[in-house]
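Thread: S-adenosylmethionine complex, take 2
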Amino acid sequence: MRFDLVTLFPEIFTGYLGQGLLKRAIDRGLVDVRLHNLRDWATDKHRSVDDRPFGGGPGMVIRVDVAVACVEAVRRLDPEPGRLVMLTPQGRRLRQAVVEELAVERRMILLCGRYEGFDERIRQVLQPDEVSLGDFVLNGGEVAAMAVIDAAIRLVPGVLGDEESNQTDSFSGAERLLEFAQYTRPREFRGLEVPPILLGGDHQAIARWREQNRTLRTRQRRADLLENQIPKERENHEPRIAEAGREEQLEG
Ligand code: SAM
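Output below.
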């Protein structure tokens, strides 16, 4: 999968690209990330990429002529035009379902904004897929672009090793519930013990516990995810125990 990042601050990505799963995926040729400095497409002697907003108001707006020239040139760098994603708080919110949709692309061009954002005509001309990290305002699109890349590469075949599976991750699979609680050594810490069922080696019992645990955790933390989703069979098989203190009872 190829990512072309269009940004005014390419150096922000240096550390990120050199670490962890992403670096491993790049080294193995599964992921390719190219950086493009929007400023390289500026045409005036000051290399300006932004200007004051018409109508007045604070801040600076990214210029349409510079952004369109840059994106069109970046597009031409590969025969696969790819999907253009504009990072903006006004886009559709990034969720696992959106990540899954993006991760099937062979190429993604990620357009990072700065300052007061983009001249509206950039949207009109380039017709990007507008994606938001959430209902808050960042200083720039770079962090949002990293989030898109980070989430998407987990779904690229071969990127995760056997030991790191996305199958049971939160928001994944048909039901999109939260993941069950995880434990590792030590078995006891400050009086907190690992649920004994996870230590017994009974794989069917462990699978049942995890299934119940993820449903319960989702109900407690993100009940909105359960709406219209719980198959009747699972509801019927859940132990009939009082809502209060359910987590403790399931952890045995
Ligand atoms: N004035 C803009 C508005 O209110 O919609 C916000 C501009 S923001 C300070 C600068 C840039 O940061 C945006 O162009 C966008 O690329 C990025 N950005 C900010 N918040 C974001 C979010 N929630 N998701 C994705 N990108 C975001």
